[in-house]
Amino acid sequence: MKKRLLGGLGVVVAVVAMQFVQTDTQASLFERLKPCAEVGECNPCEEVAATCDPCGEVDACNTKRKSKWFVNGYIETGFFANEYGQKTHYTSNRQYRDYSYDPLSGNTDYLQNVNKTGGQLNQLYISTGRSVDGRHGLDIGGTVDFTFGTDARFVQSAGFEYQGTPAAKEWQWGTGDYYSAFAQAYFEIAYKKWNVKVGKVYAPFGSNSYKSTDRFFYSLADTYGMVPATALAAYATYNVSNNFSVYAGWAQPDQFGETSDDNAFLFGFDWAVGKKLTLSYALGKGTNDRYKSLPGGAEVDYFVQSLVAKYKVSKKLTSIFDWSLLNNNYKGAGYSFVDGIYGINTELIYQYNSRWAFGFRAGWGRDINGYLYQNVVNDHDNKYTFSLGANWTPRKWLTIKTELRYDKFEDSKDFNTTGDNGVTRPGAEWKNDQLAGGVSAIVKF
């Protein structure tokens, strides 16, 4: 264990020698709102200048007009370990792809975007495109985001990065630790108060962003796995005012046209209630028949929603509350059943000064018929997670995240070393609780 920790420190020291950029905690959550409503006086030559000019047209320090074309990105790499020293396992069962990542291998649940033990490149992220500004008339643009690393499997879409049924992905970009994906690829049209996006986009659910630059903690909250990460969508946003926007349209959650019979209605809004409170709500309701090709296949009616509240308690303290739910109703020949999951994620972020920020996170999740915690706990059991974290930004281009995380299941009597369809996981031992932690660093370019 000591060797692993020393190895992790070596990775961090090597990465720190590179140039990094400070992240904007939870920035992407409310990107559809116009931030000037929350800004008072601005010093144009300071970092807040970008907030005062949300459309990025003007460089306030030299008054030159900025190009709408952009290319940027970042790299996140880090080290994670658990108290049992258990490593990530890959199943060799062809039904689940040869040597594919097994999310429930050898410890408490799905630790989301980190491997169980060892160093890893979490995200290499490159974004390019043209921003739009419809304030003065019609404007057309778009964005393409490419990502590679251990996290990229979260934003792969059926029908795009992989083909086949959900249980038998016949072709995908990557294997083992590392994958690649186009996290986003969409066209965008803006006209006055209207904005329309068409293509693969981030699904507007929950408080956790896939992008490590847009969240405080190294690992993702459990609620991230409860709702879709991406969607093929066509939806319009209407900015009613500087403080309120509403959107609606069509979506295929976590797919890219794999079936023509998976259609969902997408709706949501972002509301800056005052200077301190911002609310964000999103729902998707649809039908999916992709399971019909499986034995005893069924049509699935699904409903997903999330409510996020962000409250600025004081100048330095911010609280975030996230409630998410996914419900699936399977209807087949002579049978019907329901599964899904719902839970809460809460965060407190304290910005001590320009270099240091500290955070606490607590989460709760409840499974319905083994949807997410499959073959690990009894149906309807509860799971709790707690994290302590710190972000250090010694330079504008350097951010280092540290996290200590504890996961706890309510009941462990169904824990075993056999997973889905009797697949044995060699060397895996289920635990009903686990202490884990890690450190990562981010380069932004």
Keywords:
445 residues; globular; single chain; Porin; mainly beta
In short:
The chain is mostly beta strands and 445 residues long.
Low-confidence segments, given as residue ranges, are: 1-52, 54-63, 92-99, 105-109, 374-380, 412-427
User: Strands across the major sheet, in which order?
Assistant: 1-4-5-9-10-11-12-13-14-15-16-17-18-19-20-21
Structural class determined from secondary elements: mainly beta
Q: What share of the residues lie within helices?
A: under 10%
Average pLDDT, all residues: 78
Main β-sheet, in a few words?
A: 16 strands, antiparallel, barrel
Strand and helix layout:
Layout: H1 2-16, H2 49-52, E1 69-82, E2 90-91, E3 100-101, E4 118-130, E5 139-149, E6 162-165, E7 168-172, E8 174-175, E9 178-191, E10 194-202, E11 230-239, E12 244-253, E13 263-272, E14 277-288, E15 299-312, E16 317-332, E17 335-351, E18 356-368, E19 382-395, E20 398-409, E21 433-444
Antiparallel strand pairs: 1-4, 1-21, 2-3, 4-5, 5-9, 6-7, 8-9, 9-10, 10-11, 11-12, 12-13, 13-14, 14-15, 15-16, 16-17, 17-18, 18-19, 19-20, 20-21
